Amino acid sequence: MRNALAEPKTQTDVRTPELEDGQHLWRLAKDTAVLDLNSSYSYLLWCRDFADTSVIARIDGEPAGFITGYTRPENPDTLMIWQVAVDEKFRGHGLASTMLHELADRTGALRMETTITDDNAASNRLFQAFADQRGAGYDRRPLFTPEMYPDGHDTEYLYEIAPL
Questions:
Q1: Following DSSP, what letter does each residue of 103-121 receive, concatenated?
Q2: Hey, what domains does the chain have and what are their CATH numbers?
Q3: Tens digit of each residue's pLDDT (9 = 90 or more) over 86-131
Q4: From the centroid of its chain, how far is CA 126?
């Protein structure tokens, strides 16, 4: 017999971030404990200057995730994804994928780039699945290697996904 008290439906809103969302982006990035955390100031600037190439997701009004990106100045048909974050309690339900597709569709980008370290299995899966779902090819190669960093950062591999 089915329970008479059905679970309430959740409402997901994926939209362009506003200036006030900068604080939520910072907290979400911080709470992942895996993203390189930038200053709260930088997330405010991001919401002001790169909002059109970024998204924030809210579930039932609560900030649940974000993607920051920008178009490459020398290649404006390429969307570079900088950070992807999903709050721990909302992971495993395809929110990152939903945000990524929304952003690609909204920007009309023909190509997408991102960088991912080898140990970030979730991001590697996300972008490979995105390329597969779009029927796009992807190329992966080292972009920033440890000797380039002053702090011993791991190699960031550039993913090039096209055509979208």
A1: HHHHHT-SEEEEEE-TT-H
A2: 12-162 (3.40.630.30)
A3: 999 999 999 999 999 999 999 999 999 999 999 999 999 999 999 9
A4: 10
